[in-house]
Design goal:
- The structure is a single chain.
- The protein has 5 helices and no strands.
- The protein has about 80 residues and is mainly alpha-helical.
- The longest helix is centred in the middle third of the chain and has 12 residues.
- The radius of gyration is 15 Å and the shape is elongated.
- The termini are far apart.
């Protein structure tokens, strides 16, 4: 079973930027986890754009609430 699953995964896997954690800061990994909580992998391009923009907590703090809500609205997370 294990071998069959690994073969299937090697053929069928999809590439997502969050599966390459060495290219992300720990904060970006946390942010992606939160963004994926209520969304699907179809939102990957938007989630990647947000994660790249906010690599550190201070990046989030430097934005206004309205701007953050606007960026999260397409994911339905603007009030979270």
């Amino acid at each position: 079973m294990r071998r069959a699953l690994l073969r299937w995964f090697s053929r069928e896997r999809r590439a997502f930027f969050w599966r390459e954690p060495e290219s992300l800061t720990p904060f970006q990994v946390l942010l992606v986890e939160f963004l994926l909580w209520k969304t699907s992998s179809r939102s990957a391009p938007l989630i990647e754009r947000i994660a790249r923009r906010y690599a550190r907590p201070r990046d989030v703090l430097s934005r206004g609430v309205a701007q953050l809500e606007d960026e999260l609205r397409p994911l339905g997370l603007q009030r979270r």
